[in-house]
Amino acid sequence: MMHGVAIKNPDGTARHCPFSLAPITLQRAAFDHLLAVTPLISQLISAVSEDAAFVQSALHDMAQADPFFGRLMTLHKQLHGTADAPLSPPRQPLLLMRTDYMDDRQQGAKVIEFNGIAAGMGPFGQRATQLHAYVQQQWPSLYQEWVENPAAVPAPNACLFHLAGAIAQAAEQIKASFDESGAPLFVMVVQPDEDNVYDQHLLEVALQDLGVRTVRRTFAQLATDLSTGDGQRLLLAGLGPVDVVYLRAGYQPEDYLVPETSVCQDKVDRDRVDEDSVDRDSSLDRDSESAMSMNALSQTRVFIEQHRVAVNATVSQQLATSKAMQMLLTRMPASDLTHWGLDLFQAEQVKSVLAAMHPISTDTVEWFMTQADPAAWVLKNQGEGGGHCVFGDDIAKTLAALQPDEYAAWALMQRLYPHERDRPALGVRNGQMTVVADLVSEIGLFTAHFNGQPMTAQSMTGQQGYVGYLVRSKPAKEHEGGIHSGKGILDSITLVD
């Protein structure tokens, strides 16, 4: 807790994040493969997200089936127009992405999901690596007892510093484009009652150390405090020009719900494309409650992107990192992926880490009910965070309850069964130690791209665009491995040849 690795409690107190006492071990060759392929995935997603016509065409059915993503698609059309009448929003896309993997026992490491919005906890990943180095130095015999492989070497992880460096570079580029001097301004968009404030604060302090001013605002606050300056400059009341907007909110309908009308809505209405004209068939028309949830503050995102400011995540990035897009890219042949700037070898590398996925259809439901092994699959909707996956016998029940017009919001994904740690692990949660015999790990690799270009020098991290990692481990029997909402604990990586 003294190092900022904490979670806020509802009463304003705090508790430490759960953690392992010693790290996991990976084969160096396997980790190096992930370091090589993850920046390629980010390069692909960056290019796909800026292909507005493809995003709208590819995700049309999903947007019709999922009210929340239907609203996001409406925002996308306000910003980018349609294939017949394209628009070019002035925002500059800053893709800070976390690609999550599990190391399957049979197939090796495979992607679980892409995270392009609220892809946080990079600072905690660096802190976990530092913690294990501290334990190794201070209590070497204890470390040797609990580390998975005593001969393994720690994998470097400066995720906090590299994320901050990438954001600072983008901020400075925006400021320089206006020929302005002084400290850049970074705005973090947060949820009103966020418990993950410590992870966010670590990033803010790192940015401040690089000369960047930082502020935290909710969508409701931004709705009344944003305005337009010369040259499509985004201005924040009392603070002036904004250089970077970083969304740690906006991935669920509740983030946009307020009791009063958004002032920013009126600002956008003066210049924006009429929503009814761009998406008259939106599924939101069939779900007034969801529409109300999104209407209040979603226009603030449109207003932000109608200015020359670095943004993570843009609406297009959020759509491009959806489960539906992951499924579409997974099912494409490698040759099709070369449309977005990869060569065939790079495309095949990307394909090597994508697990099998199937769209839901009448035929898929029939196949699953009659032939599939429920233990071999997981059913996913488009939700972010924990609680959006269905396992085992519950899959058939969920499929049977779905209506055909809901199918496109769901996908079947091959279930991954990662290696369990070779030795028992010691986990610490709420100050209590627990021996876990079957710990498995989820590895998230962070990358940073600005306007399609990697934001880190190869000499800094070994790979263009790679900035660091986060490891969350959990007992194999647990489905939810989140640090905040699941049974996950912070962990780090050691490597063995």
Question: What are the salient characteristics of this protein?
Answer:
497 residues; alpha+beta; Dna Ligase, domain 1; four-stranded antiparallel β-sheet; 25 strands; globular
Your description of this structure?
- The two termini are 34 Å apart.
- The protein is globular, with a radius of gyration of 22 Å.
- Helix 4 (67-80) runs parallel beside helix 12 (288-305) and helix 5 packs antiparallel against helix 7.
- The chain contains 19 helices and 25 strands.
- It is α+β, with helices and mostly antiparallel strands and 497 residues long.
- The strands form 6 sheets. Strands 5, 6, 8, 9, 13, 14, 21, 22, 23 and 24 form a 10-stranded mixed sheet that branches.
- Mean pLDDT is 90; it is low at 261-287.
- It folds into 2 domains: 17-355 and 416-496, no CATH class; 357-415, Dna Ligase, domain 1 (2-Layer Sandwich).
- Its cofactor is Mg(2+).
- Belongs to the eukaryotic GSH synthase family.
- Pathway: Sulfur metabolism; glutathione biosynthesis; glutathione from L-cysteine and L-glutamate: step 2/2.
- Residues 186-257 form the Glutathione synthase substrate-binding domain.
Tell me the layout of helices and strands.
Layout: E1 6-8, E2 14-16, E3 19-20, E4 24-27, H1 28-49, H2 52-58, H3 60-65, H4 67-80, E5 92-104, E6 108-115, H5 122-138, H6 140-146, E7 153-154, H7 159-177, E8 185-189, H8 197-209, E9 213-217, H9 219-225, E10 226-229, E11 233-236, E12 240-241, E13 244-247, H10 263-269, H11 275-278, H12 288-305, E14 310-312, H13 315-320, H14 323-331, H15 334-337, H16 344-351, E15 357-359, H17 362-370, E16 377-380, E17 389-391, H18 394-401, E18 411-414, E19 425-429, E20 432-436, E21 439-450, E22 453-454, H19 458-461, E23 466-475, E24 489-491, E25 493-496
Parallel strand pairs: 4-25, 5-14, 8-9, 8-13, 13-14
Antiparallel strand pairs: 1-2, 3-19, 5-6, 5-21, 7-25, 10-11, 11-12, 15-18, 16-17, 16-18, 19-20, 21-22, 21-23, 23-24
Helix pairs in contact: 1-16, 4-12, 5-6, 5-7, 7-8, 9-12, 10-12
